[in-house]
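Example record for the data management plan.
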Amino acid sequence: MQKISLLIIFITTLLLSGCGSSTDTKTETSVEILQASGTTLNPYQVYMEEVLSNRTKAFRLYEDVNDSDPLSGADLDGMSHMLVRHLNMKDTTNDYIQKYQYLVDNNDSQYTQQERFELVMISLSAMLARYDDYLLAYKNFNDQTNLREELNDAKPGYGIAANVLQDIVNTYNSTSQRSDVKKMIHFYDDNKQAYENEKDSLFLYLKDLIENSPSYQLGFDDTTGNTTANLANLYNITVDSGDDALDLLLNEISKDFGNTAGLVATRKGKLYGDADVAANVRSVIKPGDFLLEKTPFRLTDKLIPGHWGHAAVYLGTDAELQDLGVWDRITQLRDAGDGYFTQAKIDELRQQIKDGKVIDEALRDDVQLNTIEHFLNIDDLAIMHDTSEATEDKIDRIILTMRQLGKEYDFKFDVETSIKIVCSELIYATDILHTWPTENTAGINTISPDNVASKSVEADTIYTIPLLYHDGKEITTDRKAYMQGLLDGSIE
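Corresponding structural encoding:
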């Protein structure tokens, strides 16, 4: 299995978690950033994941504040933190753009032609990400007078100068920068055919970033800027929403935004929208079961080593949790003064579960609950069930899993941190009675979805696989052997 060649170098992850100046990413050399080995954690991919996470958070914030009248204190604080996140990443974005942009016109002898092309891809993808941030997030704020004025006010308490949003708008509309990105796009389009058979994971990641960018697909020939109407049309093409009504644009995007890497998805999953599959899952799955999925059509899938790209936990329906005794235990915790399970928190959590949000998962914006239908925008699915777990232990584990809700995504992928968490860490941090396999890369202990899945194929495993889908088709015979094939690569 390819080890983690896609996460972070130690210094970069410290920066991306919010500490220090982002400009220190200059410390890695150009050749190092292109390396894809089992011992190298790639800083650019982690940087880009942070960019996409911030974009998702900005979009969701807009959904929360656009109808607020007046804006609440929480709204104002949220918008200030959105600008802080933007400013923390701004210099890094400029560094990646400017560091390699010269290679469009300069055949630097220190690089091979492929290295030159990939470095230009880094510069171009960073530039496109900046344009996409505006199109998919900041334009919404700029189009609304009260939000625009608030975001352009100075905020000394947050270290924010005046006119930050206006600077973003000016950058988007800059004629010279549009000329630069057009030149880079032409260079990319003129040379990409030479590498159409390239299988390197970083190369494919960069290719997806570029070719699934809304700004790349819209182009830069319109000097007046890309319109929301064009974006609506692009969105329908990119994620096949089937509804081009402008007044539904924001709502439609929000349904999939958190899982599509800022619309970096080439199609829907093969299990998506299949009522029979959803019914099959409901008939099999039990409270506390683990879910594994693969989405080869999404950018995020190229970040995760091995076959499986994501892991989650099924909490159970309201009735299942009641029968199991979870709600009674939570009530006892509330009565004992538990600081997390206040009555307001219990009411909110229970309502979400009654609304069908029964899957607990760590996505880019945070740990959240989602429906089975939302989760099934995938090609492959596996359910893992612990046959040995006592009821009291299961109750404790489900409650511990609920306590992770709202945590930020862990871009360090470090199992030894508890403030932030990544998808497979959700299992590692909550199923505490079992020992889980981890891997050490660049001094960081990580757990991948494949590490989770490997527990189901051990000789004396306590985990069964009651349901398995591969490439959109249910596997009904010897699921353990089939899982082994997926993990060792003998089944693609």
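Summary line stored alongside the record: The two ends are 12 Å apart (CA to CA).
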